[in-house]
Every structure is written in structure tokens, then in C-alpha cells.
Amino acid sequence: MTGVARAGTGTNQEAVRRHNLGTVLRYVHRTGSTSRASLTSQMALNRSTIGGLAATLEDLGLVRRSTPVASRAGAGRPSAGLEVVSRRAYVLAIDVGVDRVVVGRVGLGCDVEVRARVNLPPEPAPEHVAETIVGLVAAVRADASPESTLVGVGISVPGVVREADGMVVFAPNLGWHEVPFAALVRERLGLTVDHVIANDADLGARAEHVRGAGVAVDHLVYVSGDVGVGAGVITDGRPLGGAGGFAGEIGHMSFAPNGLRCHCGSRGCWETQVGAVAIARAIGAPADVVPTLDAVLDDFDGPPESLHEIAHHVGHGLANVINMLNPQVVVLGGYLASLHRLVEPEILAAVRSGVMSAAGGQVLVTRPTLGADTVLVGAAEAAFESLLADPAGVLSR
Amino acid sequence: MTGVARAGTGTNQEAVRRHNLGTVLRYVHRTGSTSRASLTSQMALNRSTIGGLAATLEDLGLVRRSTPVASRAGAGRPSAGLEVVSRRAYVLAIDVGVDRVVVGRVGLGCDVEVRARVNLPPEPAPEHVAETIVGLVAAVRADASPESTLVGVGISVPGVVREADGMVVFAPNLGWHEVPFAALVRERLGLTVDHVIANDADLGARAEHVRGAGVAVDHLVYVSGDVGVGAGVITDGRPLGGAGGFAGEIGHMSFAPNGLRCHCGSRGCWETQVGAVAIARAIGAPADVVPTLDAVLDDFDGPPESLHEIAHHVGHGLANVINMLNPQVVVLGGYLASLHRLVEPEILAAVRSGVMSAAGGQVLVTRPTLGADTVLVGAAEAAFESLLADPAGVLSR
Known about the structure:
Chains A, B: This is ROK family transcriptional regulator. Chains A, B: Belongs to the ROK (NagC/XylR) family. 2 copies of one chain form a homodimer. Chain A is of the alpha/beta class. The first copy, chain A, has 3 domains: 13-84, Orthogonal Bundle (Arc Repressor Mutant, subunit A), CATH 1.10.10.10; 89-203 and 375-396, 2-Layer Sandwich (Nucleotidyltransferase, domain 5); 213-368, 2-Layer Sandwich (Nucleotidyltransferase, domain 5), CATH 3.30.420. Helix content of chain A is 40%, strand content 23%. Chain A has 14 helices and 16 strands. Chain A has helices at residues 13-31, 36-43, 47-59, 126-141, 181-189, 200-211, 270-274, 276-282, 293-298, 307-325, 335-354, 357-360, 374-389, 391-396, and strands at residues 33-35, 63-69, 79-84, 89-96, 100-107, 111-119, 149-157, 160-162, 167-171, 176-179, 195-199, 220-226, 228-235, 238-239, 329-332, 364-366. In chain A, the strands form 4 sheets. A 5-stranded mixed beta sheet of chain A has the order 6-5-4-7-11, with helices on both faces. In chain A, strands 14-13-12-15-16 form a 5-stranded mixed beta sheet, with helices on both faces. In chain A, a hairpin with a 4-residue loop joins strand 9 and strand 10 (176-179). Chain A starts with 12 loop residues before the first helix and ends with a helix.
């Protein structure tokens, strides 16, 4: 655990306490339950300070005592347990996909309590999507417990997002350019909590890092497959954003200068080889299944021959990503997870033939532990940030 | 400036003071000279604390008072100036290239006081290189001031390096596999200071970030061209290492599945298109000029027609790197700097045609500010780390 602050000159004691309260809550939020002894050792604060922080969080209703937990070594007195009260606070997680919107009500601890989903028409108007979200939000809030406080809204979009001002700079598969989508949603919802918006792959990486295939891993790449292909990257335990937050556009690695024209304007981008359109074409499926390619692939018992070349292209592109970033884990999300289920050995063979031995020796290529919820959970994690930064302050608003 | 620590419980005051002393020295080392007022505002410590730290560094002979410096606004009393005493401490910076070794004696503030260079035979034995280094070190130390203390050795190698144990895992253009080169050099030199070793591109990125084209930039890619091609990456102001420290192998982005066989075992790697061998072939130069391709390119008044296709390949690969990492600055080092001087417009055109507009809009593609010294300066910066972490401790050893 990092980020523990110590009381200093006295002028900033309140800030230090707020910070530490958030750090304890973050830990319980991540782990679901823990013991005071474990918190004491993780945070390097003394027992009474931890006890005081835990008591404050109990008073706020965010955690409760649980059965005492035996220490890891099995020796000594069992330590007082703490567990998250998921119904005390919740966020709205909004996953805008190319063909559908999913809205989840997600309780503290990232418990997805309820989901609602509506399909979208091709290239939907942002206003239409925002209106759709309003309806879904009403649906998922309908049976929320009256004691449960809404503390944030997190929005995922399959495109290039400028997080600072909530602008969707470019979402080619939605047909959006420079859409101030966070503001649009905030305006329609009329909610006063923080609204955050981010790229779907970045949120997928975050979710799998915190609660999925990348727990305890500091270097992870999440590759999203939702018609287009993008990546969210964690290096040294932190998201890789780049100068403008636009890093991870691996769908537009260009492999074939004389290849197919990509909607980005270039030729031969990876997306023209492994995007959903290319795969639908390869398996002879009609173009209108493109947005639901994951379901189509999941219906196959075994891989059709035509997917072998696709698998080769997937592995080839992943090898480039691995050579550049040297991750421990690569998680294939969306329809790429379905593809991985069918042609894992072929993908791995292509990865192996392309990676430098040093970087590629230990890399694990896998599917999301959180399954279809990965991006939704990532959006929820982002939405919980303000509560985790200042638990008492956010609840008193 | 980051990393300022505050005195806490009393038990760790000595550690805090050591840390702050190093932070002040690091600042003066980077800037060459500064004022106490500037240090006070940068470090958010009070005047008397800064004064005490500066006095200690003066006593150690590492800094001296200089002419008072007017405040930036021009108002108020001029503040006491501080400047680095470069001759008080020095490091040995060793730049092992594919065809030569350069050893520099580099004073505090990264003043390259003297360089010595010897050419290497093809695929030199590590022991031979280490012996060569011993001779060069003796040459550059011969006229070192007796008051100047050697505080570290920094070694750059064009290959994949495991920094933790000083192992050169793979340096294809030297023909090295699993060579414990840092230990080999340490043994031959018989010096008791810290020896650090790193990849040449990583050190180039570090040097240009601290003192070159990437000062005040948080996202930078340095592309090394020394027969092969690699990258050193800075993201969020910190080096991107990856799980094993092997990130940045962009020479082995594979573009053409049916392309030329690369020495890494793959086909169609970027290095087969833009490596020194490919360029020598394109301009009809004999193979034995490959290691000195920079000098050959520097002799051209204008670009031969044959370099236009190479420029296109360079820009195409850079676009992929930019799409993935979203840097503010890309620095082309080694023979790629010479190439850039000849065909900059063609490289830029290819970059522009391949980048996503969001990520590529603002990127600057340029040559190293530090010129041929970039990697040497990076090795020196790495070697100064132990002094900057504990100035008094290292000098008293």
C-alpha cells in the first residue's frame, strides 16, 4: 500500500487524516474485507491510529466489523476484521459500446448490483445516447436502497477521450468528433456528483489491474475489442497516458503500407486485419453482426479454418506491443476474448515467433477475469475516486 | 521539484536531511547554477533550512557561492547564487558502441572534461572490451585534479540489459548473450565505487530528458541508431522499463511477415528496413561502413534518391511508436540523426500520414541537443546517482 501521509506541522493534520481515511477505505474497497492487523502492517501506522480511522469509517457506515481474522502465520490473537458495506454508497457505471449502452449500479467494493442494457443504432447521435442513458439510469436507480448514497458517475467510451474536460476527441466507430459527452450526460441526468469519462481500454486495464487478471502485476496491457481495437496500458502500476492521454492506439499500428484503407485515413492498420469487420468477413458473416461479433464467435464449437490467419495477425501485433512495453500480462477483451477461446494456440505461436526472448519469455496472454463486466467495473472504479479521496467530505455533500 | 521530505518523528531526521541534501545537489547539478530563493520556492522548505543545506554542500566543496542572482520578476533583493563545482567530483562514463568504446571523465554538472575513444573489432569478446576500457580509463584519469573524487562508473551497452545484476542479456550487434559485463568491468578496473550499466537508448532518453531536447517535457522517446535500432522511453517524467526492464525494443516491430530475416529470428522487423545495414545497402556503400554510417551520411551534401524510401520506413515506424506512446518529443540519435538531417521532410510526411490526429498533432521529431555525447552523458547521469542520493556519505567513503 502506498500513499500514507504522516502528520506534520499541524497545519495540514486535517488533510493527512482525510488522506489516510481514504487510503483505509480504498484498501477495504479493493479487498472486500481485511483485518486491522493487516491494515496496521500495510499502512505502517500504529494500531490506535488505524483503530480511529476504522471507527470513523464505521460511523460513516462505509465499513463494519466482521468475524475476527486469524493472522497469516496462524499465531497470535485473531485480529478484528473489517468489511466493506457495499450498499452504503454506489456509483453509476456507464459503458457506451459501439452497438449498445450498459448502465450498472455498482456498490462500494465494486459489487455490480444491477445492469440495464439497450442496443444502439449505427453511428448514434450523442444526444440520443445521452437520452438513452437517462432512461437506463432511472431503471437501475429505481430499487436502490434509500440508505445508499450516489457518489459518482463513470462513463466509458470506445474512442480517444480528453479526460480533463470530458471531451470525446474521436470515436470513429460511433462517428463522433469533438463531442463534450461528459457534459452532455451530466446536463441530462441533472446529478450533482462528479462525472468522469475515459477510454474503454484504459478502464478495462484499470479494472483487470485492480480486480482481475492483473492483480499484483505492475505491467499489464488490456487490449479492447469492440469493433475497433485499442489498448489500455499499466506500467509500474500506473496508467500510461502519454502527453495528451492518447497513448494505446495500437489498432493503428500500420503493418502493410499497401494494405486495406483504415477509417483513420492510413493503410494496413492492425485494425484492418484483426478488427471486427475483418473477422466477420473472414468467417463469412454478414456485416450487421459486426457489433455483436463476440456472441457469434462464442457460438462456434471449434475454430473455422479462416480464423487461423486472423490468429496469426493477432499474435503478430501482440508481439510488437510486447516488444515495446514488456508487460507481464496481456488481457484480450471484448470479441478478442471470444477469439482467444477459439484459437489460443495459434495466437500464442505467433506471439512467440515475434517477441524478443528477453521481453517475451514470461508474458501471459489471457482473457479478462471480470468477463464482460471488465469495462463497466473500470468505469465504476473511476467513479469511486472522489469518495476514496475524501470519504467524509463526499458523504456530507 | 519533487521528492522533498519533511522531518517527522525524529527517528528519521538524518535520513530526511540526507535526502534533502541530495535533492538540493541534484538541482544545482542539473541547472549548473541557481539562487537560494529559487531553491526555497522549488523545494517548499524555509530559507534557513535551505541555507543550512547549501552551507553543508559548500563545506563538502560540491557547490560554491556565485554572483547574486536577480529574482525572475526583477523586483526585490538579488538572492545569493549557488553554482556547481564540477571538479570536486567526477564519474567515468563508458559508451560501448558496436564499433568503438568511448570513455569520458565527466565532472559534476555533467561537464564532459575529457573523452578517449578506441575502435573495436567486429563482435568483440567482452573481455577484450573490458581490457580496452581499462586502458581508456587510465588515459582519462591521468590528468584528473587530485581534489576531484571519483564517485561512480556508468556503462552504456547497445543491447538488452538487466540492470539489477549488471547482466547484458542480449546484444545482437556485439554478439553477446548473457554477459555479466558490469562485473567484468568492475573486476578489471578494481575500483570500489558503484558501477551501473544500462541500455544505450534508455541512457540517451535520460540525457535528453535531463539536459537536451526533452527538458521540461514529461513524455519523450529517444530512438537510438547504432547499427540496430532501439528506444528509450520517458512517460510521466519517468523511464518506461516494463516488467524486466526490456521495454523499447522497437527495432523489432515486425512490419512485413514475408520481409527480410532479422538477426532476432523474426522476419520483416523495422530494423531490416531502417537499420544501418539496410541504409548502407540502399546508398550502395560497402558493408564495412555500417558501424560508421553516421559519418558516411554526414558527408552527403543532399539526400541520394535511394534514401527517400528509407525515410518513408522511418516515418512509418515512428508513427506506430507515436500512436502507442503519445510522446511530446521524439529524438532520433546516432545515424538516425544524420539521416534526419538529410531527409527530414520525407520522414515527417510519413509520420503525419500514419499518426492518429489526436496523438500526433503536437509531436516534435528532432535530433539530440547533446549530439554525439547524448549516450555518454546518460551514462554519466546514471553514475552520479549514488552521490546525488547521499552526498556526504559517498564523499566520506
